[in-house]
């Protein structure tokens, strides 16, 4: 929040040096490796108003612009908020909506010579209780809507499809529920979607990963069913599906069809995913974090993981994986943390020993002569021993540059020959 406040103050200073802008100003900051976007709209963003709810602006003055739609939208929302412990809405009085706390304004992108318009709403950590009303769709010039850490219930109104300028939507850490809010799929400029820590349920729509989203945070909900086959089509740099109830196999086309080289982080941990790790996973050569832990994945690791030369954190713990950890995995140049605990691996190469000092957890496997391994009876029957993972033959050593084209070609041939 300190970073957000500092940035907001800086933008306010810059605002006085700008000429009439044709578009609302938005700034995104990537923090850490997770790519969390923070957008700040330029405007007054706070301060109360002495005007009554129906008081006109000063005669002959344009300092208080008329925002008929914005005033209607925000007053309707104010009426739907049942608890405001921080008294934020006490500033939401009068027609000058740009003076409302948490509201940021900029010149209208349609006509810079007219009054300013609402460009963003930032009410993070406001602890508001209530619902999200349909009238907010009147704010068609809004670029960002940040509402994380409140107590909003219900779901998103279908009218939100009219928010054609919205780029960032953060609804995390609320009490929202119902199926995936498909209205978000019809916001043409949305690039940042954060729905984590709510109670959304049901399946994920296929279209989700076909949209032009750069960040998708859906973790800590109740989503279930299989992961859509379109997963590999997403242009996102970060996808977090952790702590849901997703089941079935990982899409076999993941990393093959519509492969996305931008993907930096993807988290599947703590779901109910079964089957094999797709061979196409190695195509994501710029990936830095891969977490598949706490699922029911089986079989051997694909050799194509050796193409993940930028991977720093690889967590495969608490699955049913087997085989040996080879040099091609433990020699990944950027790897600083490899966790394979609570699987059924039967050994690892000498190269893996170099990771002992930086982070290599291989406890509770079936590795002879090593401490903290499973009791021998548990290792007598390997889960998924009869499982046949689809593996397209690849040359040794693997030519990572040509891997994508090879897998795509052979996968297409396989698909066309299937009944």
- The dominant shape is elongated
Question: Quick one: biggest sheet?
Answer: 12 strands, mixed
Number of helices: 5
CATH topology assignment: Leucine-rich repeat, LRR (right-handed beta-alpha superhelix)
Strand content of the residues, in percent? 15-25%
H/E series, N to C?
HHEEEEEEEEEEEEEEEEEEEEHEEEHH
Number of strands: 23
Please state how the strands of the largest beta sheet are arranged side by side.
Answer: 2-3-5-7-9-11-13-15-17-19-21-23
By CATH reckoning, the class would read: Alpha Beta
How many structural domains can be distinguished in the coordinates? 1
Average pLDDT over all residues: 80
Specify Rg, calculated over alpha carbons. 25 Å
Classify the secondary structure makeup into a structural class: alpha/beta
Which CATH architecture?
Alpha-Beta Horseshoe
Could you name the ranges where pLDDT drops below 50 across 5 or more consecutive residues? 1-66, 410-419
CATH superfamily heading: Ribonuclease Inhibitor
Helix share bin: 10-25%
Distance between the termini: 55 Å
Biased composition (Low complexity): 51-64
Region (Disordered): 47-66
Subcellular location: Secreted, Cell wall
Pfam families: LRR_1, LRR_8, LRRNT_2
Structural description of this entry:
- With about 425 residues, this protein is an alpha/beta fold.
- It has one domain (about 1-55, about 65-415): Ribonuclease Inhibitor (Leucine-rich repeat, LRR (right-handed beta-alpha superhelix), Alpha-Beta Horseshoe).
- Helices cover about 10% and strands about 20% of the residues.
- The protein contains five helices and 23 strands.
- The chain has helices at about 1-15, 70-80, 325-330, 375-380, 400-415; strands at about 80-85, 105, 115-120, 130, 145, 150-155, 170, 175-180, 190-195, 200, 215, 220-225, 240, 245-250, 265, 270-275, 290, 295-300, 315, 320-325, 335-340, 345-350, 360.
- The strands form two sheets. The chain has a twelve-stranded mixed sheet, with no helix packed on it. Strands 1-4-6-8-10-12-14-16-18-20-22 form an eleven-stranded mixed sheet.
- A hairpin with an 8-residue loop joins strand 2 and strand 3 (about 115-120).
- The longest helix is centred in the C-terminal third of the chain and has 18 residues, at about 400-415.
- It is elongated and about 75 Å long.
- Mean pLDDT is about 80; it is low at about 1-65 and about 410-419.
């Amino acid at each position: 929040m300190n970073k957000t406040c500092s940035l907001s103050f800086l933008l306010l200073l810059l605002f006085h040096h700008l000429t009439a802008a044709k578009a609302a100003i938005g700034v995104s900051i990537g923090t850490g490796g997770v790519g969390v976007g923070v957008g700040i709209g330029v405007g007054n963003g706070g301060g109360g108003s002495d005007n009554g709810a129906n008081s006109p602006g000063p005669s002959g003055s344009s300092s208080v612009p008329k925002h008929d739609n914005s005033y209607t939208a925000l007053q309707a929302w104010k009426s739907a908020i049942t608890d405001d412990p921080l008294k934020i809405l006490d500033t939401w009085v009068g027609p000058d909506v740009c003076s409302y706390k948490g509201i940021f304004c900029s010149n209208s992108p349609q006509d810079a010579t007219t009054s300013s318009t609402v460009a963003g709403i930032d009410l993070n950590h406001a602890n508001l209780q209530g619902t999200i009303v349909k009238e907010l769709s009147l704010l068609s010039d809004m670029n960002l809507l940040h509402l994380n850490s409140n107590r909003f219930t219900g779901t998103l109104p279908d009218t939100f499809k009219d928010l054609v300028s919205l780029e960032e939507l953060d609804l995390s850490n609320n009490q929202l529920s119902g199926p995936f809010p498909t209205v978000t799929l019809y916001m043409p400029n949305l690039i940042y979607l954060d729905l984590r820590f709510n109670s959304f349920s049901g399946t994920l729509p296929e279209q989700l990963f076909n949209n032009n989203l750069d960040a998708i945070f859906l973790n800590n909900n109740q989503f279930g069913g299989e992961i859509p086959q379109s997963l590999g089509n997403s242009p996102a740099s970060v996808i977090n599906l952790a702590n849901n109830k997703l089941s079935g196999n990982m899409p076999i086309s993941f990393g093959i069809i519509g492969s996305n080289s931008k993907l930096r982080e993807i988290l599947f941990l703590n779901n109910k995913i079964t089957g094999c790790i797709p061979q196409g996973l190695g195509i994501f050569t710029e990936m830095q974090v891969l977490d598949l832990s706490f699922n029911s994945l089986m079989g051997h690791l694909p050799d194509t993981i050796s193409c993940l030369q930028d991977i720093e954190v690889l967590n495969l713990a608490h699955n049913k994986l087997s085989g040996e950890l080879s040099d091609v995995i433990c020699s990944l140049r950027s790897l600083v943390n490899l966790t394979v605990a609570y699987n059924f691996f039967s050994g690892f190469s000498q190269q893996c020993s170099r990771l002992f000092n930086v982070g290599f957890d291989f406890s509770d496997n079936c590795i002879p002569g090593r401490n903290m391994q499973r009791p021998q009876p548990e290792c007598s029957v390997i889960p998924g021993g009869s499982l046949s993972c689809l593996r397209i033959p690849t040359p040794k050593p693997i030519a990572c540059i040509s891997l994508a084209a090879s897998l795509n070609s052979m996968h297409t041939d396989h698909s066309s020959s299937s009944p």
